[in-house]
Amino acid sequence: MTTASVNGELYSIVEDTAKSLYIKALKDLPPDVRQALQKAYETETEDTPRKVLSTMLEAIAISDDKQRLLCQDTGIPLYFVKVGSRLNIDIPRLQEAIVRGTERATVEHPLRSSVCHPIKRTNHQTSTGYRIPLINLDFVKDDDTLEILMVPKGSGSENMSFLKMLIPAEGIRGVKKFIIDSVLEAGANPCPPFVIGVGLGGTADLCVKLAKLAAVTRPLGSRNDDPDIAALEEELLEAVNQLGIGPMGLGGKTTALALNIEYAYTHITQNPVAVNIQCWPARRARAKIDACGRVEFGY
Predict the structure, then answer these.
(1) What are the pLDDT digits (tens) for 114-145?
(2) Surface-to-core class of residue 234, CB atoms within 10 Å of its CB (0-12 exposed, 13-18 middle, 19+ buried)
(3) Distance set, CA 230 to CA 21, 42, 237 (Å)
């Protein structure tokens, strides 16, 4: 199939891919998350956290065997889309295709729709609504592929989101204190052991977005390219895991599977910090569509 012939079919391919990604993300846990949970189980020495982690591992095995959802919360659907600069794409049509794929996944699977109006609480039972699914667009130089990362963000973890507009005088100590205090306030609510995303710098809205990116798009075990930020990630992860919150808040050595930081330059008179948390089944699914319309699924 040539690039020209696939151009008209691309949006249909995107729609089918968005549908498949939503279902896959809800059922097929990424390998890095599985490995982190297994490592946590092997590291724990106390009976209660080991039993909790054993139950989580058993739930994953049942999901694999029976093709069941890992959690009943189908979340707010998030799509992180990277568009190659060499592709000729109608962005509104691309967004519409993703919305249709989300609706089809919900109706045809079927899935529980968790999306409703913020005041009326009306639910169209399609996992879609005004400005939802959330579609984040980015562009990649000298590339001819389309990459879509799908994340179903559950409310238990999303409710535990925090932002503070620190001032520079509070320094790195203020940053660390706010992050640790946020984890303590979250406690067992986001179903630990969780993934902690931290945003540093930028503006208030950018800082929160960076925290979300850190929580849901980074592979577990990865480190920021900036060595100072990477060292801070390691220091804070160790500190969080000394809090003793543990799996499902019942104590233990593993409160967080990972702590990731994304940053941006900011104003000289401010230093925003945000925390966004992802629950233990850190669900995500990824697909890459090449210029000929071939789709490769991954995590």
Answers:
(1) 999 999 999 999 999 999 999 999 999 999 99
(2) exposed
(3) 30, 25, 11
Cα separation, 28 vs 156, whole angstroms: 20
Tens of pLDDT, residue by residue over 46-83, are 999 999 999 999 999 999 999 999 999 999 999 999 99
Instruction: Report the b/e string of 74-105 with b at 16+ CB within 10 A.
Output: bbbbbbbbbbbeebeeeeeebbebbbbbbbbb
Query: Given the structure tokens 């800082």, which residue do they identify?
Result: 207
How far is it, in rounded angstroms, from Cα 285 to Cα 150?
A: 5
**pTM score of the predicted model:** 0.95
Q: Which parts of the chain fold into alpha helices (H)?
A: 3-27, 31-43, 47-66, 91-108, 155-158, 171-186, 204-216, 227-240
CB crowding 154-179: b at 16 or more within 10 Å, else e = bebbbebbbbbebeeeeeeebbeebb
CB distance 263 to 199 below 8 Å? yes
CB 147 within 8 A of CB 76: no
On whether the CB atoms of residues 264 and 201 are closer than 8 A, the answer is yes
Calculate the CA dihedral of residues 236, 242, 247, 248 and round it to 10 degrees: -90
Cis peptide bond N-terminal to 133, omega within 30: yes
The Cα-based distances of 291 to 61, 145, 147 in angstroms read: 36, 6, 11
Contact partners, residue 42, CB within 8 Å, separation at least 6: none
The conformational region for residue 135 under phi > 0 = left, psi -120 to 50 = alpha, else beta, is beta
Task: Please confirm whether the linkage preceding 193 is cis (ω < 30° from 0).
Answer: yes
Q: Is 139 exposed, middle or buried (0-12, 13-18, 19+ CB in 10 A)?
A: exposed
